[in-house]
Structure formats: structure tokens, C-alpha cells
Amino acid sequence: MAISEKDGSRFRDAWRAAQLYYMQDLTMEAIGDELNVSRSSVSRLLDLARSRGIVEIKVISPTEAPQRIEREIKRRFGISASLVPVPDRTSHIDRLDRVALSAARMLGDFVSSNMTMGIAWGSTTSAVGRHLVKKPLSKFDVVQLNGAGNDHTTGVTYSSEILRRFGEAYGAQVTHFPVPAFFDDPNTKAALWRERSAARIVDMQKKVDIALFGLGSIYAAVPSQVYTGGYLSDSDVAELTAEGVVGDVATVFYRADGSWDDIAINLRSSGPGLDVIRHIPRRLCVVSGESRLASLQGALAAELITDLIIDYPTARALVQD
């Protein structure tokens, strides 16, 4: 994406201001004198540097507890975890927003040019998308992992808005997947998957370099979109409960032990099989709230996660014996 001469000049000034402020400890007044701008202009330049990824801020905990929990998660589950400090009394909505904000800031460290990212729509990825920091990349693709239509909506508006934010943040080519979240008949899905237009996207999903997803849960304090958006009938929910389902990734359901391939509704799901998810090199999961703990434990049993961004209270609960 071409940068105008005016924008290029602003970015250079933002870089200079960031160097002087963060690397040389100059005050805003001193930077303003050096750049011949006002103090308020310096503040705006520093905001620009942070929002465009010129400055990356990392906060290291001075206490042992967060690192101990991260090490314990690594030891038990073989994954990397990043803990987001959130008070226990924080509301479920605020907790999700704070975790999503941190995830959006961290995501820039996971993505680079010449990559394809797969995104599973949902309340968590939607929240992450609202806080993304712009990082224009070259030859970066974003592909939708599961369809979003049901019997009263195409789901295109909802899923497209999520993907649009990622596309704009990273200068990406976005590939939508305009199919139902769940088919009425597995044979209909199988037939459509043989069509070249659908087969191209399904093949693309199998080759993504990084996947971003939250965990669906029927028991979550902040309800998952798949359970509140009219995607499942009462009989579907009863069937999932009887099957011992604890969660889903990209509308593919699994049990506490990580098993999934004999759950009948998965034959009708448009999401990639969990064996496809497991073969993606980086699998970034964002989780908020202890009400999703069972879903998280099932996803870990299924080996669906390589990197986890999680609020501190839920991480603490995860490693408690």
C-alpha cells in the first residue's frame, strides 16, 4: 500500500519523537523544541507511533506469580501463554474487552508479510478486531474459517465486518466463506465442497500459517455467538449436552477429553475439522473468564492451541490442583 508524501513525513516525525522520548528520555517540551512543534503535537506524534507499531511496549511483571503460572502452563500443556492482569471483580464484558485489547496489541508480533491468517468468527475475535493496531504487510491473506449463515440470515454482515477490520489493519487480501454455519444435510455439504469455488477456500484453510480463534461455550458468562445467533435449535443443544460437548472452535464441537470426530453435528459444520486446525503451525487462542475453563481444558486436550492469551484469574484457575 503506497504511503503519501505527507503521511511519510508524519511517520518520520513520529519515529523521531519516539526515539527522543523512549530512547533518550527527553521531555515532551524538549522534543517540541527540537522538532519545532507544540507539546500537544508531540503527544499526537507519540500516539501515532504507538498506533502504527513504530513503538512496541512490553510490560514485565516484577512479581513471580504471573511468570510461574506461564511456566506451569508451558510445562503441563506445552504451549506459550500470555497473562492479562484483570481484577477478579471485573465484569464479564469488561474482562473480555481488556483481554481482547491486549490480544490485539500482541497480535502484531505474530503476523508478518507472506503469511495467511485464518479467522474463526465469534464474540472474541470480534472484540479483538475492534482494537487492532495497523501494521501494513505485503502478500498477507486473511481467510474465513467457517460459514456464518443460518435459516434467517446469511451471516455475511457479521462475519464480513470482523474480517474487514483485520484486512484493513494488515493491508490484507480477504477471502470470505459465504456458506451456512451448519448444513441441514451432510450430503449437501459434501456436494458443495466438491464445487471449485468452495474447494478453493477449503484448500486455502488447510494452508494457513496462523489461526486466530476464541472458544465457544454454552456455559460462558458472555454467551458465544453460535449459541445466541440462532444457529442451533433446542434439539441441537440437547444433543450436544447429551454428547458431553464442552466447547467448539470454528463451530466444530469437542468433548472434555478432546474427542470430536464422532459428534454427529460436526458432519454438518462448515468449520474445518479439528485435525485441520491441529496442523496449522501457530494457533492463537484468546480466552476470557472462568466460565470458559471447561472449554479451554477440552481444547488443550484436543491439542488445538499453541499460543494462549488469557486473563490472569482464569489462568490461575487452569493450573490450580
3D architecture notes:
The protein is of the alpha/beta class and 321 residues long. The radius of gyration is 21 Å and the shape is globular. Helices cover 45% and strands 13% of the residues. It has helices spanning 5-23, 28-35, 39-51, 64-77, 92-107, 123-129, 156-170, 186-193, 196-205, 225-228, 234-242, 274-278, 293-301, 312-319; strands at residues 80-84, 115-119, 140-144, 173-175, 210-213, 245-249, 252-255, 282-287, 307-311. It contains 14 helices and nine strands.
Gist?
By secondary structure, this protein is an alpha/beta fold. The chain has 14 helices and nine strands.
| Number of helical regions | 14
Helix content, binned percent = 40-55%
| Spatial order of strands in the largest sheet | 1-9-8-5-2-3-4
Beta-strand residue fraction: 5-15%
Q: What's the architecture of the largest domain, going by CATH?
A: 3-Layer(aba) Sandwich
Return residue spans where pLDDT drops below 50 for at least 5 consecutive residues: none
**What does the radius of gyration come to?**
21 Å
Shape: globular
Number of distinct beta strands: 9
Largest sheet: 7 strands, parallel
Using the coordinates above, name the CATH class of the largest domain: Alpha Beta
Structural class: alpha/beta
